[in-house]
Amino acid sequence: MKTLRDILQESVKEGELYEKMDNGFVRCVACGHRCPIPDGHPGVCKVRFNRGGKLYVPWGYVGGVQCDPIEKKPFYHAYPGALAYSFGMLGCDLHCPYCQNWVTSQALRDPRAVSSPLRATPEMLVRDAVNQGAKVVVSTYNEPLITSEWAVSIFKEARKAGVKTGCVSNGNATPEVLDYLRPWIDLYKIDLKSYDDRHYRQLGGRLQPILDTIRRTHQMGFWVEIVTLLVSGFNDAEDELKGLAGFIASVSPDIPWHVTAFHKDYRMTDPADTTPEMLKHAVAIGRAAGLRYVYAGNMPGRVGDLENTYCHQCGMTLIERYGYHISKYLITPDGHCPSCKEAIPGRWAEKFEGQIASSPYLPYFRQRGAQLTTLD
């Protein structure tokens, strides 16, 4: 009987993000690990591997597909109310003990993570995204950087169909992979998990590549939003939050920063769940650092007005939210405040067209199993 690893090693093609080295090694440049990989072995991510001196990468499947309000990603300054057709594969280059998508991200590390990959094509996924009414197609759930070749093939189809594109990433990138992605991606959300390198090493990474990615993506013209999952005793120290917020503000005070609530999940069951007061305090730190758009997430109705978007110039309420639901939208078609005419940073539609859904749902074909079939 085939193992998941056997199945995934058949669903591959030669990658584009690697260099050949001596003695049959290859160096993968899809993520900040820059793994030198000997013949017959995978990189840290477990899904990019060397076979005969060539790097093979995931291809032709999805580990999950879902239709999400774009606010769930979260993007608050990019097409509010839009439907984001979200897909992922399997594997990750980090191993966060609190991962909420661990069933897909840790599929080849943790025997409890059982996820059945489904056969798919870029054309099929984009066609379904259009049929669902999605405005954006997003690579998410696992780490998009390690499946960049597959994501780009889908994004190329999305561009042909007039659909926007985005990534929800841990930000552990390289200049090479960002150059590869830039022509095909509009939106880039980055998890800045901590501002302490020791904490990042506990998660299997390093802080500096993530900071470099934030600077570089902003300079390259991606629309960037930053998320920090606030975990008691891990990344919520006053000095750390001040440093983190100050760093984002040094890149641009217009980058939205989302602080979201931790709840016990996967292997992290010791810290207390994040409270609304903790989120409010982090928002205050962000604003004091000079950030103009700081949001508290994952606690609808419990964080006061910290889900809403306000004009940084005159304070007018521009977008009112409850969770993923948009209840008020006043930004002008050209992206300005209607009161003081200040330009509001973001990617805005010409008009608010309402919401197809204010909660996630599975696409109809996934429910019926009519087109996506399990790899075997």
Describe this protein's structure.
This protein is 25% helix and 22% strand. With 376 residues, it is of the alpha/beta class. The chain folds into two domains: 4-58; 62-329, Aldolase class I (TIM Barrel). The strands form five sheets. An eight-stranded mixed beta sheet has the order 8-9-11-12-13-14-15-16. Strands 1-6-5 form a three-stranded antiparallel beta sheet. Strands 2-3-4 form a three-stranded antiparallel beta sheet, with no helix packed on it. It is globular. The model has no long low-confidence stretch (mean pLDDT 93).
Q: Any low-confidence stretches, pLDDT <50, length ≥5?
A: none
The assigned structural class equals alpha/beta
Shape: globular
From the coordinates shown, what is the CATH architecture of the largest domain? Alpha-Beta Barrel
SSE string, helix = H, strand = E? HEEEEEEEEEHEHEHEHEHHEHEHEEEEHE
Helical fraction equals 25-40%
What is the CATH superfamily classification of the largest domain? Aldolase class I
What keyword list fits this structure?
376 residues, alpha/beta, TIM Barrel
Secondary-structure map:
Layout: H1 4-10, E1 12-14, E2 18-20, E3 26-28, E4 36-37, E5 49-51, E6 54-58, E7 61-62, E8 64-69, E9 83-88, H2 102-105, E10 118-119, H3 122-132, E11 136-139, H4 148-160, E12 164-169, H5 175-181, E13 187-191, H6 197-202, H7 207-220, E14 223-230, H8 238-251, E15 257-261, H9 276-288, E16 294-297, E17 309-310, E18 317-322, E19 325-329, H10 364-368, E20 373-374
Parallel strand pairs: 9-11, 11-12, 12-13, 13-14, 14-15, 15-16
Antiparallel strand pairs: 1-6, 2-3, 3-4, 5-6, 7-10, 8-9, 10-20, 17-18, 18-19
